[in-house]
Amino acid sequence: MSESKLSWPLKIWVGLVILLLVAPALVVIPVSFGASNSFVFPPKEWSLRWYENFFTSPQWTSSLLNSLQVALLAALLATVVGLFAAIGLQRKFKGAAALSGALLSPQIVPGIVVAVAIYITFLGLHLNGTMIGFVIAHAVIGLPFVIITVSTSLANFDRTLETASSSLGARPFTTFRKVTLPLLMPGVASGFVFAFVSSFDEVVIAIFLQTPSLRTLPVQMFESITLQIDPTIAAASSLIVVVTTAILFAWHFASQSNRKKVKQ
Amino acid sequence: MTVPLSVVTAGAKNARRADGRKLLVLLPAVALLLMAFVYPLANIVWLSFTSPDPGLGNYVKLFTDGISIKILLRTLQTSALVALLTLVIAYPFAYAMTRVSPKTRGVLTILVLLPFWTSLMARNFAWYLLEQRGGPIEQFFAFFGIEGVVLLGSVAGVTIAMVQVMLPFAVLPLYASLSGIDSRLMNAAISCGASWTKAFRTVYLPLSMPGVVSAFSLVLILSLGFYVTPAILGSPQQALVSQLIATRVNQLLDFGGGGALGMILLLMTLVVLGIVSWLGKVLGGAKRV
User: Distance of CA B107 to CAs A1, A12, A23, A256, Å?
Assistant: First the structure.
């Protein structure tokens, strides 16, 4: 099918939707180069002071490092736990469907309800404002992504390969490490990426769990709009928008050229 | 939500029966879920009936304080409007995605996913800039002689931003559904003498209903519990339910009252899910006939 099949009104509609999807995020870029202490758009004078502040002020650097650390640990926990859970769910047993529904349910319960519930409960367990509290809460949010991606990989996985491996004398752990895991790697890796991004971007639970000594980047951004009017958020937003766009397009074109190579 | 579930359980059906020992691999996931999800939720259900006093006091208060019900209805109305607008914008786009070359489709998919992957905070901040006093939207309308269009702090401002934030969640399920429709059916109807509009209304639209229902309900459910956009772009005077819950819990330390409100919100979500699965069955049944 060729593109010329699209009628003109439809083409215009597609163009407008693309504009709506992409354009709003771009307004953060000019503001990030502004010089004044406000959110004026477009800025009257230009400077790099907000970028400098983002990389030097302890408030911003520590929140960035906290976010990276929480996201990495939460994604690791979610990936390991989710990988085993997905393998377990493949086996036929009573209540498998109910259990997988329960493991995916953090995605359905309204975000604010989960956040408030975790906040009140972790308050009693003294987990608020601790690294372990953040990691556990974010791992639960990332878990459904890992279970879904690994289950998709498992659905295309030939179980006889495991049987072959063990009939040739491999121990269960060796079979898992040398046969199962490498074949499931695409699902595991994309589950990890989803879990990492969902933690790195998570705001609502983080707003409730934060203390002044442990705050993640999205919380710092939230407070710099609602409490502080700190234009450093424009620099932070611009960096995130540019880096994400670059990674997505690089990944898209890399996978496209890979496909071409396979065809040849 | 039903698609991933079927992927997860599909394998279970044809896998061999395992001995209980092999199910130990599920233990860490269950433990994590219990600690950071099931127990906290059970905890606020418990608190909603016991704190500060045992009984139904918190729920009675919701219906009698004059503000909670008003805010719940406003939230339902706003979320339904967001879902409807998102659907109307996304449908032609998803349709176009099924009609273009694979290469163009790849680029369109990336463009849909772009805001999905871009920080939620960055996007909400962008809308703050657009909607603020003296911002581009006010300037745009002032250019045409309409003064004072400041969307920041209004439900309209929250609605517009949420539509943009939710677009990917509507486009992706719609595309999945529309790409499964055989385009020759439309051609067949047209060659039998139907106009394009009539062919679309009687053939294509009914076939696309499952996608429409899942896109609408996904956006509706996500919107009901959305906190960040109302908190940044809305105002306390026109609060949505997520703001009310946050205020009760975080500032008033009214865990019971906040918990009760959260339960009502969860109940609303489950009702929407119930209606959707019922609709799915009805539509699915109609298709088979």
Answer: 16, 16, 16, 11
Confidence of residue B1 (pLDDT cuts 50, 70, 90): very low
ipTM score over 0.90, yes or no: no
- Residue B82 near residue B223, CB atoms below 8 Å: yes
Predicted local distance difference test score (pLDDT) of residue A57:
94
Name A58's Cβ contacts closer than 8 Å, sequence gap at least 6.
none
Crossing angle of the two packed helices A58-90 and A49-56, in degrees rounded to 10: 60
Mark yes or no for CB contact A1/B5 under 8 Å: no
What pLDDT is stored for residue B139 in this prediction? 87
DSSP B26: G
Identity of residue B155:
V
Please name the residues in contact with A263: beta carbons below 8 A apart, sequence gap of 6 or more.
none
- Residue of A112, A138, A145, A148 to mutate when probing chain B, most B C-beta within 10 A: A112
Rounded Cα distance, A30 and A22, in Å: 15
Q: What 8-state DSSP symbol labels residue B66? A: S
Distance, in Å, from the CA atom of A246 to the CA atom of A231, rounded to the nearest integer, reads 23
In this structure, are residues A57 and A51 in contact, taking their beta carbons and an 8 Å threshold?
no
What burial class does residue B244 get, using C-beta atoms within 10 Å of its C-beta: 0-12 exposed, 13-18 middle, 19+ buried? buried
Q: Does B278 touch chain A (CB under 8 A)?
A: no
A28, A120, A244 ranked by CB distance to B47: nearest: A120
Cα A28 from Cα A155, distance rounded (Å): 42
Return the number of other C-beta atoms located less than 10 Å from residue B198's C-beta. 12
Alpha-carbon distance of A200 to B200, in angstroms, equals: 43
Is B17 strand, coil or helix? strand
Q: What is the pLDDT of residues B102-152, one digit of tens each?
A: 989 989 998 998 877 788 999 999 999 999 988 889 888 988 988 888 899
Mean pLDDT of the A162-189 span: 88
The C-alpha of B148 sits at a distance from chain A's nearest C-alpha, in angstroms, of 17
Please give, rounded to a whole number of angstroms, the shortest distance from the CA of B92 to a CA of chain A: 7
Measured between its terminal Cα atoms, the distance across chain B in Å is: 25
Which of helix, strand or coil describes residue A93? coil
Single-letter residue type at B208: S
Q: Residue A106: CB partners within 8 Å, gap ≥ 6? A: A114, A140, A141, A143, A144, B33, B37
Residue B16 carries which DSSP code?
Answer: P
Find the DSSP H helices in B15-135: 27-33, 39-50, 57-64, 68-99, 102-117, 120-131
Q: Which of B125, B139, B229, B263 to mutate to test the interface with A (most CBs of A within 10 A)?
A: B125
For A219, nearest residue in chain B (alpha carbons): B121
Q: What does pTM read for this prediction?
A: 0.87
